Amino acid sequence: QVQVVESGGGLVQPGGSLRLSCVVSGSAFSFNDMAWYRQAPGKQRESVARIFSGGSTTYADSVKGRFTISRDNAKNTVYLQMNSLKVADTAVYYCKAYVREPGIAGIIGNYWGQGTQVTVSS
């Protein structure tokens, strides 16, 4: 069974930094694409960043140059380094695993974590 667990959220002042972590168990992690999403109160969940199994990355325009997604396949972990945080970055951040299996074409399932709260406030 695939499990996705985020950590690292908290309260930070504008201009500060946080690093979120997401550990995935129950899958061949290195084959997965991984992503971070966020949802602010009263708003729809939106994509923040994605890292593909080969290491390429994409970012939402609102976080380009401030956030960095990375992965450590040996630790089954994906990270989101968030710098120059703004009040507008306040949201629950979710990790999503696009699970692949060796020898099987395509994504076999999508799994979400429970979310971690990030609050940017002075």
The beta-strand count equals 11
Beta content comes to: over 45%
SSE order in H/E notation?
Answer: EEEEEEEEEEE
Computed Rg: 14 Å
The major beta sheet can be summarized as: 7 strands, mixed
Distance between the termini: 41 Å
**Low-confidence spans: pLDDT under 50, at least 5 residues?**
none
Average pLDDT works out at 96
Q: What percent of residues adopt helix (DSSP H or I)?
A: under 10%
Query: What shape does the CA trace take?
Result: elongated
Helix segment tally? 0
Q: What class do helices, strands and sheet pairing give?
A: mainly beta
Characterize the structure shown.
- Helix content is 0%, strand content 51%.
- The protein is built from no helices and eleven strands.
- A hairpin with a 5-residue loop joins strand 5 and strand 6.
- The protein is elongated, with a radius of gyration of 14 Å.
- The mean pLDDT is 96.
